[in-house]
Amino acid sequence: MTVGSRRWKEFFLKDIFVVAQRGKRLTKVNQIYGSKAYVSSTASSNGIDGFIGNSEGVRAFANCLTIANSGSVGASFYHPYEFVASDHVTHLKNDSFGPLVYLFIATQTGRLSEKYNFNREINDKRISREKVMLPIGVDGEPDHAYMEQFIRSLIDKKRSEYEARANRELRALKFVKIPPLADKTWKPFKIKEIFGADKGVYLNKKDIVEGNTPYITATASNNGISGFIGNRSLFPRNTITVEKISLAPFYQGNEYYCSHDVSVLSSPSLNKFNALFISTMIKRQGGKYSYGRQAQLGVVKRETVYLPVLLDGSPDYEYMKQYAQNLYCKKIKQYLDYLNAVEVMGHPDN
Q1: Among candidates 118, 117, 71, 115, which has minimal Cα distance to 90?
Q2: Does residue 49 lie within any of the structural domains?
Q3: Do both 8 and 141 map to the same domain?
């Protein structure tokens, strides 16, 4: 199934969504911690900026799209759950749409980000004039059946790919019963005592070449990757990167280029799983760092990390590897059990 085989037509958002309403302002200081999603103008985590418990003076919606009016302008997401919307997003709703239609249209409304930015936000008036391209039926109206079928085919394909990969990884891993963390002896280590530590190299934007090499910068998300470039890789796989703002560590399984804002930790004892364990322990020290107190290379070297040890007092790399590997096996099994037990986006498993 291809989108190119269909006829398409422009539609005003106001003509395909019965309701279009902004959320309501709720400052950080007035937010109460809770379990309800708070959707704002972020382009990640499905637009969720946190979870709150506020029930008064807010606007709550469910089963609709949101589009960011500011911030990550144009970012669009479907929300099948109830959430509270900030004043930086507009919710778009049509009760005749199913989840798959919403997902299809979200890909189209998300393209509005190409024409807006921080200096040109999507206000209410502009939203009323905006159009999206949608596939149509013989009557010239949006073809909801086709949209559902198209998204379903993508979901089924991705699910099949995931299941195949998950099962391959499970076959390659072995769950081994080991002592719990509380039964292990732990010891503090300076990072420089157990790792070689290097610093990345500054790369001017004008010198960046398009390509497939991961570009690691001072971001605490997406495994530290801010993009992919064609500049030669600087650092080998099987290392840990640590960004300077929050001491966020990430295991790097591929060769990569690293900016000057990031430290690189290496050790012949590292592998994927003990590196993930150690990264978690390093991250626990990140609360003391910020833009005003950054973790440059010298600071990272002197930072302390607590690790389980052997009888001779050296890090127990094998234990850390097996502990992380056991968690990995458990999580993959949970995902597979979930896929086999529930209906995915309204599509029952038969």
Answers
A1: 71
A2: yes
A3: yes
Structure tokens at 198: 């290097």
Residue 16 domain flag: yes
Torsion on CA atoms 7, 13, 14, 20, rounded to nearest 10: 140
- Cα 303–chain centre separation: 27
And the tokens for 71? 């911030």
d(CA 175, CA 244): 35
Tell me the residue type at 318: E
Query: What range defines the domain where residue 53 resides?
Result: 3-147
- The CATH number given to whatever domain includes residue 188 is 3.90.220.20
Enter the tokens of residue 253.
């399984």
DSSP, collapsed to helix, strand or coil, labels residue 89 as strand
Does the residue 33 lie in any domain? yes
Least confident range of 70-84, 97-111, 217-231, 334-348: 334-348
Task: Please check whether residue 188 is in contact with residue 309, taking contact to mean a CB–CB distance below 8 angstroms.
Answer: no
Nearest to residue 203, comparing CAs of 238, 228, 171? 228
pTM of this prediction?
0.77
Would you state the pLDDT for residue 349?
Answer: 43
Cα–chain-centroid distance for residue 208? 24
Interatomic CA distance for residues 149 and 1, integer angstroms: 9
